[in-house]
Write a structure and sequence with these properties.
single chain, mainly alpha, 94% helix, rod-shaped, disordered N terminus, Myosin_tail, actin filament binding, Myosin-16, coiled coil
């Protein structure tokens, strides 16, 4: 029971009527016992009286038996009612046990509520701390809002400045675009001019290269011509020397042949003719040595025949004249005699001259034999040298052909060079004009460049300012991101607190539901108790009406019990009203909590919306960051592509440098080769001069031999015998020469395979020489004339060569200047191209910067709008936070007041609990007493039953008696 009392500490004041009921039952049970005792006493008195009066009053027993029967019936009824009351008390005990169990559950729930109250107190403390933090956060947010408002104002000012700068930059960009378009058009024109200039320069370089090649050829040809001129001068000096020698020889021969008279004069004439012929044919006998023997034979035969024909013709003339003069007068006879005398004298002279000729012929034969031996040796040596000279002659002929072709080409080249020089002069004038135009364009470009550099500096300054502003905006952005992160953290904390509050709300809802269930159960128990009370009141009224007569003695007790019951009923009603008030308070708290839950749900929705907005902002910022990253990556890729292009250009420049160095090396190698070729040409010219000297010596020897041969021919003409002898000797010599030729041909046949082409060329040359023998004299005169012309032409060519050298030097200087100018122009064009590329890059950068500034202005607008929206949202959030703060303050105040009320209620409950404990202890004592009374009543009932059984037996015994 003590445990039950300990359990039923909270709301046992609701069960106070039960104790009153038990008391009423105990008090109600007492009178029957007294009545029974009184009845027992009455029975005992009646028995004694019956025993005493039985004898006197037999008739009254029947009435008494009837009354006893009625009393027994009433007792049975009371017993049944007591049984019902006992059953009802058992039910009440079971109900009390159930209530004790419920009290135990309620005590547990009370402990849980204490724990929850502590948790709620801790939560309230945390909420107070959170409220303090929110107050601080509100203050910080207000300060941040003030800062944000200042920053927004600053950003608006900056935005206005940026818009003005953007307009100015757009105007500048438009002007720059126009300037760039003009520059592009100018650069396109310059590029076209550059292309034309490069094409012209390439054409001029090709011409210059051709001119340099032709110049080299001309120099070589000039050197060859100079060498030939020197050789011709040497030959002329040698010819003059030989001519002088021949003149001395001719004078000697004239002195030697002055005695011969007409023959000498004829021979002198022939010698002069032969000298002329030799002098005419001396230059061409170098190519005619192969046919010289046959030609000499034919010449000798022709000369002998000519002399014979001349002599026969003279003799015929003389005979004709003599025959015609047969019939002439004596004077004529005398003249004939004189002529005969003269003829005899002439015959004598002829005989003398023949004798002298014979002596001279013998001497000449000796000399001729010696000369033949020498000539045979010289012929062999000459044949040897002849082969060499033929080879050299063929080479020289080829060189002569080449020189003739080169002369033609030189003349053509000279004409072409003149034309090219005129063209070059025109091109130089055009290039000078273009150069002046380019210089003007360069000055304009430099002016525009300076202007663009100034504008670029201004733009760089503006860009630096914008970069500083961007850095400030980035810092502001970082601050906003930090604030955003702080707000996120606060939002997460609020979400966590809201989650905790939602969990606490769920717990409170569960508690409310459990309290509702408890209230319903208590209301049901209250209704049941009211029904029980109504029943008990009915029973009380019934027992009161029934036992008014029997309980007159106990009316005071009943009134006291009634008063107590009324007091208890009032207390129970007050408790019920208190519980109803508590239920109404709980319902109010429930409604308030529901309102708070709804407000918290709205706050959660608002916070979720704010979180969604912040997520959108974060996504926008992430997108912006992604765009910036993409832009940075694009810039990095552009920088890498520019670096790659610069590397490629550097590689191309390196390749061009290497190619230029290789070309320079090749030019140096070609110069060295040209020097080597010039040295070889000098050596060859020296060799040719040596060969020419040897040929000249051979020509001298040949001329001497021909002179001797002519002398022999003259002596042969004097006498036929000598001629026949000489002819036989000549035939023998020819046979020997033919044998020598056969030997040489046999020797040369071994090398015919090697020199077939040369032989064919030589045969062609011989045929052409045979064809040109008839025109030899004319050719000689024409050769002299051509020689003079050639000398004049050579002098003119020397002058022209000097002029050409001077012009060439000037051209080389002009070419070098042009090359330098072309290099400078190329450098300038490269600089202009680089400047154009830089300007294009700067234009692209400016356009990008303009687009970036426009995008940044739009982004700043969007950020300003977003910041304004965020400011408005933050203001609304601040207002909502203020409202929440006020609501939370109100809630805290209400919670504090509720807490105070709860503390007062707890104090009242503790007091009531202590009173209930006292009442429970008294109730337990009363229950114990009631149990003792019930046991006693049971024993009395048992005694009464035994007494009734005894009385029945007595009655039966009386009836039986």
């Amino acid at each position: 029971m003590e445990k039950r009392v300990c359990v039923i500490q909270t709301d046992f004041h609701q069960y106070r009527p039960l104790t009153g009921i038990h008391r009423h039952l105990a008090q109600a049970k007492r009178p029957p016992k007294q009545e029974g005792a009184e009845k027992v006493g009455v029975v005992t008195l009646d028995q004694s009286k019956r025993r005493e009066v039985r004898q006197r009053e037999d008739g009254a027993e029947v009435d008494q038996v009837n009354s006893v029967q009625q009393f027994l019936e009433a007792e049975m009824r009371e017993r049944e009612e007591l049984k019902k009351a006992i059953e009802q008390s058992d039910r009440l005990l079971t109900r009390v046990r159930q209530l004790e169990e419920e009290n135990a559950g309620l005590s547990k729930e009370k402990d849980d509520t204490f724990v929850r109250m502590r948790a709620e107190q801790e939560a309230l403390q945390q909420a107070e701390q959170h409220c303090a933090q929110l107050v601080q956060a509100r203050r910080e947010l207000e300060a941040q809002l003030a800062q944000l408002e200042l920053r927004v104002e600053q950003e608006e000012d900056v935005n206005a400045q940026l818009t003005s700068q953007r307009h100015t930059l757009q105007a500048e960009c438009c002007s720059l675009r126009q300037d760039l378009e003009e520059l592009d058009s100018a650069l396109s024109a310059l590029e076209k001019d550059k292309q034309k200039a490069t094409e012209d320069l390439q054409f001029e370089e090709e011409k210059v290269n051709l001119l340099t090649k032709e110049k080299v050829k001309l120099q070589v040809h000039v050197e060859e011509l100079e060498y030939q001129l020197e050789q011709e001068r040497k030959q002329r000096t040698e010819l003059e020397k030989s001519r002088r020698k021949l003149e001395g020889d001719s004078k000697n021969t004239m002195e030697n042949l002055s005695e011969l008279g007409k023959m000498r004069t004829n021979l002198e004439e022939l010698i002069k003719k032969k000298d002329v012929e030799i002098s005419d044919t001396s230059n061409r006998l170098e190519a005619e040595e192969a046919l010289s023997a046959g030609l000499q034979k034919k010449n000798k035969e022709l000369q002998v025949e000519k002399q014979r024909s001349d002599l026969t013709r003279e003799l015929d003339d003389l005979t004709d004249r003599l025959e015609e003069a047969g019939g002439v007068t004596a004077s004529q006879m005398e003249m004939n005699k004189k002529r005969e005398v003269e003829l005899q004298r002439l015959r004598r002279e002829l005989e003398e001259s023949s004798a002298q000729a014979e002596t001279m012929a013998a001497a000449l034969r000796k000399r001729h034999g010696d000369a033949l031996t020498e000539l045979s040796e010289q012929c062999e040596s000459l044949q040897r040298t002849r082969a060499k000279l033929e080879k050299e002659k063929q080479n020289l002929l080829l060189e002569v052909d080449d020189l003739a072709a080169s002369l033609d080409t030189m003349q053509k080249a000279k004409a072409s060079t003149d034309m090219q020089l005129k063209k070059l002069e025109d091109l130089l004038s055009d290039t000078n004009l273009r150069n002046e135009d380019l210089q003007k364009a360069l000055t304009e470009i430099t002016v525009s460049k300076n202007r663009l550099t100034a504008e670029n500096n201004e733009l760089n300054r503006q860009m630096e300012e914008t970069e500083t502003k961007l850095s400030q905006t980035s810092r502001f952005k970082s601050l906003l991101t930090a604030q955003h992160e702080d707000l996120k953290k606060q939002f997460d904390e609020e979400v966590k607190s809201k989650a905790a509050l939602s969990s606490s709300l769920a717990a409170v809802r569960q508690e409310c539901e459990s309290l509702k269930d408890q209230l319903e159960e208590e209301q049901e128990s209250k209704l049941e108790l009211q029904r029980i009370v109504s029943k008990l009141n009915g029973d009380v009224t019934h027992w009161r009406s029934r036992h008014e007569a029997d309980s007159l003695q106990h009316s005071d007790d009943l009134e006291e019990a009634k008063k107590k019951l009324q007091v208890r009923l009032q207390e129970a009603e007050e408790a019920v009203e208190a519980t109803q008030a508590k239920c109404s308070g709980l319902e109010k708290t429930k409604q308030r909590l529901q309102v708070e839950v709804e407000e918290l749900c709205l706050d959660l929705e608002k916070a979720n919306n704010a979180a969604a907005v912040l997520d959108k902002k974060q996504r926008m910022l992430d997108k912006q960051l992604g765009d910036w990253k993409q832009k940075c990556e694009e810039l990095l890729t552009e920088v890498e592509s520019c670096q790659k292009e610069s590397r490629q250009h550097a590689g191309e420049l390196f390749k061009l440098k290497t190619a230029y160095e290789e070309s320079v090396e090749q030019s140096e190698a070609l110069r060295r080769e040209n020097k080597a070729f010039q040295e070889e040409i000098v050596d060859l010219t020296d060799q040719l001069s040596d060969g020419g000297k040897s040929v000249h010596e051979l020509q001298k020897m040949k001329k001497k031999i021909e002179m001797e041969k002519e002398e022999l021919q003259a002596s042969l003409e004097e006498s036929e015998a000598a001629l026949e002898v000489e002819e036989t000797k000549v035939l023998r010599l020819q046979l020997e020469i033919s044998q020598a030729k056969a030997d040489t041909e046999r020797r040369l046949q071994e090398k015919e395979e090697e020199i077939e082409a040369a032989r064919k060329i030589h045969q062609r040359a011989l045929e052409s020489l045979q064809a040109s023998l008839d025109v030899e004299v004319k050719g000689r005169t024409e050769g002299v004339r051509l020689k003079k012309k050639m000398e004049s032409d050579i002098s003119e060519l020397e002058l022209q060569v000097d002029l050409l050298n001077k012009n060439n030097a000037e051209l080389m200087k002009s070419v070098k200047k042009m090359q330098q100018q072309t290099k400078d122009l190329q450098v300038q064009l490269e600089d202009e191209a680089r400047l154009q590329e830089e300007l294009r890059d700067e234009q692209a950068l400016l356009e990008r910067r303009c687009t970036l500034l426009v995008t940044e202005g739009e982004e700043s607008r969007t950020t300003l709008e977003a910041s304004e929206r965020a400011r408005k949202i933050l203001e609304t959030e601040v207002q909502e936070a203020r409202e929440k703060y006020n609501d939370i303050n109100n809630q805290l105040q209400s919670a504090c007041s509720g807490k105070r009320k709860l503390e007062v209620d707890l104090q009242q409950v503790t007091q009531e609990h202590e009173e209930l404990q006292h009442e429970l202890r008294g109730a337990n004592d009363k229950i114990k007493k009631a149990l003792c009374e019930t046991t006693r009543v049971a024993e009395e009932l048992r005694v009464e039953q035994e007494h009734s059984m005894h009385m029945e037996r007595v009655k039966k015994g009386l009836e039986a008696s």
